[in-house]
Amino acid sequence: MTEPNIDLVTFGETMARLENPVVGPMRHARALDLGVGGAESNTAIGLCRLGGTAAWFGRVGDDEFGRLITNVLAGEGVRLGHTVVDRSAPTALLFKERRAGTLTRVQYYRTGSAGSRLCPADVPHDLIRSARVLHVTGITAAISATARQALDDAVETAREAGVPVSLDLNYRRALWTPAEAGECLQKLVKRADLLFATEQEARLIVPDADDDLAALAGSLAALGPRDVLLKRGAAGVVALCEGALHVQGAHRVPVIDPVGAGDAFAAGYLAEFVRGRPVADRLDTATAAGAYAVTVRGDWEGLPSRADLDLLKSAEDTVTR
Amino acid sequence: MTEPNIDLVTFGETMARLENPVVGPMRHARALDLGVGGAESNTAIGLCRLGGTAAWFGRVGDDEFGRLITNVLAGEGVRLGHTVVDRSAPTALLFKERRAGTLTRVQYYRTGSAGSRLCPADVPHDLIRSARVLHVTGITAAISATARQALDDAVETAREAGVPVSLDLNYRRALWTPAEAGECLQKLVKRADLLFATEQEARLIVPDADDDLAALAGSLAALGPRDVLLKRGAAGVVALCEGALHVQGAHRVPVIDPVGAGDAFAAGYLAEFVRGRPVADRLDTATAAGAYAVTVRGDWEGLPSRADLDLLKSAEDTVTR
Amino acid sequence: MTEPNIDLVTFGETMARLENPVVGPMRHARALDLGVGGAESNTAIGLCRLGGTAAWFGRVGDDEFGRLITNVLAGEGVRLGHTVVDRSAPTALLFKERRAGTLTRVQYYRTGSAGSRLCPADVPHDLIRSARVLHVTGITAAISATARQALDDAVETAREAGVPVSLDLNYRRALWTPAEAGECLQKLVKRADLLFATEQEARLIVPDADDDLAALAGSLAALGPRDVLLKRGAAGVVALCEGALHVQGAHRVPVIDPVGAGDAFAAGYLAEFVRGRPVADRLDTATAAGAYAVTVRGDWEGLPSRADLDLLKSAEDTVTR
Amino acid sequence: MTEPNIDLVTFGETMARLENPVVGPMRHARALDLGVGGAESNTAIGLCRLGGTAAWFGRVGDDEFGRLITNVLAGEGVRLGHTVVDRSAPTALLFKERRAGTLTRVQYYRTGSAGSRLCPADVPHDLIRSARVLHVTGITAAISATARQALDDAVETAREAGVPVSLDLNYRRALWTPAEAGECLQKLVKRADLLFATEQEARLIVPDADDDLAALAGSLAALGPRDVLLKRGAAGVVALCEGALHVQGAHRVPVIDPVGAGDAFAAGYLAEFVRGRPVADRLDTATAAGAYAVTVRGDWEGLPSRADLDLLKSAEDTVTR
Amino acid sequence: MTEPNIDLVTFGETMARLENPVVGPMRHARALDLGVGGAESNTAIGLCRLGGTAAWFGRVGDDEFGRLITNVLAGEGVRLGHTVVDRSAPTALLFKERRAGTLTRVQYYRTGSAGSRLCPADVPHDLIRSARVLHVTGITAAISATARQALDDAVETAREAGVPVSLDLNYRRALWTPAEAGECLQKLVKRADLLFATEQEARLIVPDADDDLAALAGSLAALGPRDVLLKRGAAGVVALCEGALHVQGAHRVPVIDPVGAGDAFAAGYLAEFVRGRPVADRLDTATAAGAYAVTVRGDWEGLPSRADLDLLKSAEDTVTR
Amino acid sequence: MTEPNIDLVTFGETMARLENPVVGPMRHARALDLGVGGAESNTAIGLCRLGGTAAWFGRVGDDEFGRLITNVLAGEGVRLGHTVVDRSAPTALLFKERRAGTLTRVQYYRTGSAGSRLCPADVPHDLIRSARVLHVTGITAAISATARQALDDAVETAREAGVPVSLDLNYRRALWTPAEAGECLQKLVKRADLLFATEQEARLIVPDADDDLAALAGSLAALGPRDVLLKRGAAGVVALCEGALHVQGAHRVPVIDPVGAGDAFAAGYLAEFVRGRPVADRLDTATAAGAYAVTVRGDWEGLPSRADLDLLKSAEDTVTR
């Protein structure tokens, strides 16, 4: 194993994201807001904002949406040296209809996209070996057969090099069935060192686990991961890390857009993990990152800097309007 | 009576609606959002979105605002075969000042408008006779003498043909006094089969009714209507339908714009009524329609489709963020 | 006659103005830009921007549009001490449809408006007597009988006090017929000292004048005015001032919105007139003000300050891109 | 043949259209304007605006973009009784990058779209037989094999019923090669009564024709069409109609968005054709419609009403700014 | 002492204010909203809206931002006769980053600004002597030495003329340390008749005061002020006025933007004070003004008119949605 | 000299740029568009878009504007490894008032800015030595004494390493007088290999040169530069390169925003220069880059990619609308 020189390596499909600016039927919008999003690249951005270094790789189309993705990621400081511009396929699109309150619907134009053409040949083995952590999500296993092979290859490379593997289950019902996902993801869980999941996702892996969340976390940890993080949204997190149970609440903030909260949580946790900070610090930063994510529109736009963490803390310390 | 071939027929005055996009004094707005609104056409749109068929008639001016109204209604699937373009009068305007929170003020440019020139000659008797329900509101009685005559004519036509008459009291203080309204509307209530009212409106009709809402509904039902729906906003609804009392809460949603909630409620109720669904279903759809109406800006823009009803239900079934 | 202590007094009806921000059918606009406009108040603003002092009076409604008008005019430095808030009538509205290129359509909601209720009792005689010039337009004669009386009263007051009367014919076809206007305006021309007109307007007054513009100006001057300004848009101006003929071209600028160019021209001319500047200077400032007016959207928004006049001059002196 | 009761029937693929509101690289846009567009539906809208009746059919997806298309077309008065909502495929998307001046780039998400699944079973034979004209474009021949079959079926139905066939070649290089297009479209030309083409498109059909435009039109007419319209953009039109040559210039207007000009031209021509007006009138309306189309952003948004034609005419009759 | 003819005189530095329209990192904004703000001018506007008369003086730069400030203040009816345009220094800027929820950050471009060059020569002694109250804030003491001298001069002038002095402590940490502020502001408190402060600000003046708010108010009153108002945001106000203790809650409203609430409170209180109304009325208007301020974006934009006070009252009297 | 591994190195002050979105007085804008701009970084972006590699260095403040600058430049692919975040000074601001047509005014908040604190210690000598060209502008010499020293140091480093020095005079009247600039810049010209200048700027250096542009270019070349490019805006360019005179026209495009055209020209020229392309190719790319720059708002936003160059060429090759 070489000396680590990058904190986090991640990969997957990042899409152009279009959504209605004002809540209601999407067809009423005169214009759709344009941005980018992808679970893995969201986490990479989050880590960079918190002072870490991150690399993302994947495929984008040779079109304005592909250029938007690389512009945004490079602008946020994510390293893109191994990202491929695929001239044979378009960049995938994600339309998000903000229908009422925080109720949303998603429509993909993703079939045959550049991002889904990710394959083992795209995997930069040396880069992965040089990382402090490899972060992957279950989405990559679902988008195509070649992407799943690339995922396997990357995880295997990390394990062989002693690089911890972080896995966020990120189940997406538009991409596969619970049964398909459960079978595939269970194998991944067994090879992961850190695991992020919602309760619903967790039960895809260990359907027979107890109702109790601590027991559920225990069942997952029994499969391999040393840190298991059960994310509960506004209810906080139940974590079983290095054998100890941690229960932590979420910050009380107005929820504007819950999308991306999980990616933010992972970014916060990993940002402290790669710095060798204790679990309590990891959870503090993870929950603060989640709070910032949900109070700002967009998947990653609201992710905090270190100065933002201080701002939140000082605001909560003061009893003022 | 011929075989019904349209679910709902309604009519009245629909106006161009202009409002400040950001809450505050209207004069601070650099631009005013432009839309359309009218209690009856809102309900017609709501019924179409829920899969029904609806026709609306009335007068609009030969101007961009009149064309906006017919464009929007036709676009939403409302049948406009009997709508009149009046070349002698302008389309009415409604300015809505969103002043602070949900506090609003309304200013009309409505005197002598095309819509208020509605008259008995405009009433399509055959269309009314072919409907499953005729829906009217108290506003039409208030905008002009000829409109009131048209209202009488339409109601009488429906009654003679055995078409149920639905009445939403919709008292508007800018148009007449409580005393004028009470006298006029009471006569309408006596000829209605379904009655929608807020508590305040109800007391214009039966000022001596008991404080208790069930008793109030009873007093109204005693005048004739077989279904009496007392709308209570965030507190839900008290309904006396076909002799049975129903008390139902509202969905807990963030209220963005309460205007149009009553029209949505009527649309939801009538959408199930014309399909012959039981009262419980009517109230479920009515309250869901009301919830959608208040979480989206605009009078009718947020009205739900059948798929939207499912989305709301599935979101409330899940305990997640 | 007392010592003049205000440069210009003017009056009339100022309206709220709503228009589509992007060229096309107005009904396609999701929002309409909100502003104010009135020929006389445009000229008052123009004079203030050029360093003069101006007062405007008239009636506005007790509504947000009335407050918008007084906010804008006071903000621009126009004195409003004699402006009346009329609690019985609404502020008039002007909708401007920018249909294609610079083709526009206008729709008024003006019948019975506060502004049209201007009457002789509103005329501040002392203020008029203290002015260096009284500026009026033909519009005021057309909006109502009482407004026309107020116009007569004001003009008579000025004449008796030796205050020069400036008249811009400003014929509006939506308000009266050419015949009505011609008869009425001819009487006003006979009492005016300075006269602004387009060729078409001029021929309403002297229908039998020669085709030649110099002759046309002469025919008008023969009725009384010592300065006659025939405005020709992009073709410049033909002026017969104090007996001498002046022909001047317009600045070559991209025309964005021609509305208000005439008011700007009058403002520029009068700004120099009240300072006692020679005709050449008056025409220079008038044409520069016209150029600024047409290159900026809105009736008065683009009107120039003295520094802006210098900017235009220095740009035209340089041969650069 | 039954008595015609609709002026124009047309069909094809209509797409959701997204474009950057401010000229520049599309990825710089914070939001993309949302609308709809399709050559055939543009022409249908244009005919409705000019007072005619038009029906359009085709397939849209069961998504917000499909609903946007049907909302817009129904709102504009186009009859949609035979339009199919295809639950198995998404609505196609068209991204238009307004790159610099009027330079644009187009990117489609159209493969496997609902619209391209049009097939002969979708063709409403009775509707076509009842029309005064059937209007088709070459695009439909290019989007799929089933769509081409539907096109053949529709054309044959019209011919058998004596309904004139109008064909706009509308060659799209993203969909097929010049050779493919030339072969296929030539067969269509032979069955068409009216033919619309640019010079470049015309030469796909008759590659050996003379340089001279009159000769080119003659070569096309020799294949069958009784009216051949060679569109030349700002240079006007060369037409060989019923054996006579017509050369007409275009209106001088600022070109904001040239897309849709050809569809507008066809709409204007056909609007007069179905009313039995002479060629000179058809060309006048066609060129005026083209002028309106290019001065307003969007493919169809600027299309003129009869009143708009008058406005353009009166503006050009007056020599004023 | 001359007869008062203006209700309130105030002065200080008013800045151009730029902020991101959508919550998140400011650098993500494609445009920043432009407005003006200054604690003292906010209060002057508030008093004018409530029907009083107010004058503000200070320095602005000879630039668009200075002109924006004078346009806004004059438009709102604030008298600016003694405001100075300083040609040697720019108008100060305030950037407000709306980071998440109501968490904000402020960045000034204020060093060497026109406003900070305020000096004793700018103080209009006669104007101050003619006022019903002089209102000052601690900010002016902090921006420059000359401004502090002007503050001293103005306060002394008022005291000598028997004009009550109102002081809002308004501590700004970006401008000075707590120690500097405490020493300087304590001297001002001793010369004030009315004192507005938050609890934190109050403890800068009387650091040894009891924890109890009533006692804290008493300690301040002991220094001189006859009315002491301790503002507690959403928790209301504790007031020790003319020897009596008043505790009043705040209105329950959705907080959109808390900035300016204190200035609004002062405006409401002083609006009734200058009319000689009792303390209960002063507190009612003050809390209502605060409620309006926080429900509307901007520092002063939401300030209420008398009609707005009625609207709030009537809405709270009704139990409806 | 090491093997070149970067095409272009440049440095200077890049600012946040705020401007009114709609032409007119800036104070009328409700919001100001936010972007970044700096002559040198504009050129670096331009070179990257054309496929080259570029590095920029300079100082930015530790604030949102500094982060905006680094986000944008990194997003565009500019290497920022030697850029300094200065925690003691704010990022400079540039306000651009788009006043009328293309008339603009500029206001800086630049005194004491982070960017002006650039000093010799910031200069990365190895980076400069590894470049194919060093590009500097006269602005850097004007912003501060330390920046001028840094400029001298960088130029000397390049010359010693045999790296060609490219100089764009870029005279800014707000920063220094013609006399100051002339003296300083002449020294720089003598050390430059490539020189970009307008005619006006050129005459600051060689005030006694002949009127003829070829002679003017000759006078400049006599001072040292082997390539002299006299930029003439819409009139094209006169170039004296490697001893040969080239006269080339500009593309005919609608000018939306002329700012940045010079930086674009330099980028285009240098993009071909570093690839060793002949002068004709350099001028072609330079003029095309200039055309793209002026047709898009913003200083650098419109700069072309290689594909954009092809698009422009193919559009000009076709005679169509």
Automatic annotation (TrEMBL), chains A, B, C, D, E, F:
<dbReference type="GO" id="GO:0006000">
    <property type="term" value="P:fructose metabolic process"/>
</dbReference>
<keyword id="KW-0808">Transferase</keyword>
<feature type="domain" description="Carbohydrate kinase PfkB">
    <location>
        <begin position="7"/>
        <end position="304"/>
    </location>
</feature>
<keyword id="KW-0547">Nucleotide-binding</keyword>
<keyword id="KW-0418">Kinase</keyword>
<dbReference type="InterPro" id="IPR029056">
    <property type="entry name" value="Ribokinase-like"/>
</dbReference>
<dbReference type="InterPro" id="IPR011611">
    <property type="entry name" value="PfkB_dom"/>
</dbReference>
<dbReference type="InterPro" id="IPR002139">
    <property type="entry name" value="Ribo/fructo_kinase"/>
</dbReference>
<keyword id="KW-0067">ATP-binding</keyword>
<dbReference type="InterPro" id="IPR002173">
    <property type="entry name" value="Carboh/pur_kinase_PfkB_CS"/>
</dbReference>
<comment type="similarity">
    <text>Belongs to the carbohydrate kinase PfkB family.</text>
</comment>
<protein>
    <submittedName>
        <fullName>2-dehydro-3-deoxygluconokinase</fullName>
    </submittedName>
</protein>
<dbReference type="GO" id="GO:0005524">
    <property type="term" value="F:ATP binding"/>
</dbReference>
<dbReference type="Pfam" id="PF00294">
    <property type="entry name" value="PfkB"/>
</dbReference>
<dbReference type="GO" id="GO:0008865">
    <property type="term" value="F:fructokinase activity"/>
</dbReference>
<dbReference type="InterPro" id="IPR050306">
    <property type="entry name" value="PfkB_Carbo_kinase"/>
</dbReference>
